Amino acid sequence: MNNTPRVFRALSATLIAGSMLAVLATPSLAEVVIRRGNGGDPQTLDQAHISIDVEGFIVRDMFEGLTIFDPHGKVIPGVAESWTLSDDGLVYTFKLREAAKWTDGTPVTADDFVFAYRRMESPSEAAEYANILYPIKNAEAINTGKEVDGKKLPIEALGVKAIDPKTLEITLERPTPYFIELLAHYSALPVPKWAIEKFGGDWIKPGNIVCNGAYCLTENVPNDHITAVKNPNYWDVANVKIDKIIYNPSEDQATTERMFEAGELDLVYNFQADQKKFLEEKLGKDQVLAFSDLASYYYVFDSRKPPFDDARVRQAFSMAVDREFLSEKIYSGTQMPAYSFVPPGIPGYEAATVTWADMDQLDREDKAKELLKEAGYGEGGKPLKIDIRFNTNDNHKKVATAIADMWKAIGAEVTIQNLDIKSHYAYMQEGGAFDAARAGWTADYADPENFLNLLISTNTTFNYGHWKNEKFDELMKASYEERDPAKRMQILHDAERIAMDEHALAPLMVHASTWLVSNKVQGFAPNPQNEHLTKFLSFK
């Protein structure tokens, strides 16, 4: 446990990131350090291969895209100081900041974005989040190897072009109203071509990495800590108040709560939700935050094998879950029961809920038993042995334990198992077999497509349950081609209706982000995207 005070005197010059970044500290200067409880250890810090929030928190501090989220979740200029859009809504032209530089002093150029986007869409890179850039012209065809006019497209056909070092042109497949918000996502971050070519997969290691964000990596000790220091070449460095970030990756919420109370952590992502009232009494309500975001907490079923290849079984297990109990007893009301995959709050969209949402819970259980009997399971039928997988977290364990009891009540024999967050998601993304598994999704941009595209059959990374429905896929394809906003939202609603009727997954709760935030920290604000860049934070 690190008891080093937040502000201390730096006594010597420190060499950071090899020869690329040197920060000089003198006895007359005080180094301001913030300690962030990150909620988990990242699988990687390579933006082409990250996919969960605990990775995004770190990577967004170290790299900056064309746009970024401000403390309130509003998209504002990042590396791009301005942009224009053609009349047909297809061509964006971005003007990059003259002052934008990498930590080694190299200017950030349009070519850095061209290289990064081509790398994301290259089939050989196998980037997990490549699909988020599919609105760019030819991105999907290149990434999936789809032939156009009888031949596969070269990576150079991707609709990104450097007009000059500080002017980037991006051409889209179709008008995309959320594209500027999408560019704040970590899949759209630039990467240093020269470092990747020199170090290969080791380019993200301390001493090799080159960053263009407000901070850059100096230490990465798995399961212990990650350290990043202020980038002296960052274009807005004069307004960056924190000198160093130390991320604590512990998933033990009780431990990080105690560390926060002791002043050893200034921010903590995720606390034990059922301890909210106790924590408020102990720490004060101003330091215990829970706010709704555009996020879903759900369970997925492996539809590739029995029993969950049968929609009746998926429906039965979903109906048997008492969402009100989970919300009130485990999450103390910080999360709300969910009966649709797309959470409420997206302008112009009406979510498609399951048809049995208004049934009493006891009636749901009776119906669940009937469905299992019809499918040949349960009493007098084939046995149901179900294993629930979840990522290590006190709240998720309590949810899994409660759901196990609910499923036992409809005749299943249930076990639970957990893995650390990076192993849990890696297992599912790699296609490992399972019965039921916990998952969560926070919107990358405020559009229902960002949730529903997870269920497209070709989305092998995030369609964890491997559910397939041709009509659903057709509707999603049509939504990408529809330019009328109202008609597009109706198409997406119809697609979600199919997914809910087929019980492609079991939505459980509308997620709320929970944070412990020291009252000494300024600049932290709740926002639907749950984005909190350290560059906007300071101490009183």
UniProtKB/TrEMBL annotation:
Localization annotation: Periplasm
Domain Solute-binding protein family: 74-460
Keyword vocabulary terms for this entry: Signal, Transport
SUPFAM superfamilies according to UniProt: Periplasmic binding protein-like II (SSF53850)
Main location per the UniProt record: periplasm
Coiled-coil region(s): none
Gene Ontology molecular function: any one: peptide transmembrane transporter activity
First and last residue of the signal peptide: 1-30
UniProt cross-references to InterPro entries, sorted A to Z: Peptide/Ni-bd, SBP_5, SBP_5_dom
Any one of the GO BP annotations: peptide transport
Family, similarity comment: Belongs to the bacterial solute-binding protein 5 family.
Name the record gives this protein: ABC transporter substrate-binding protein
Organism of this sequence: Pleomorphomonas diazotrophica
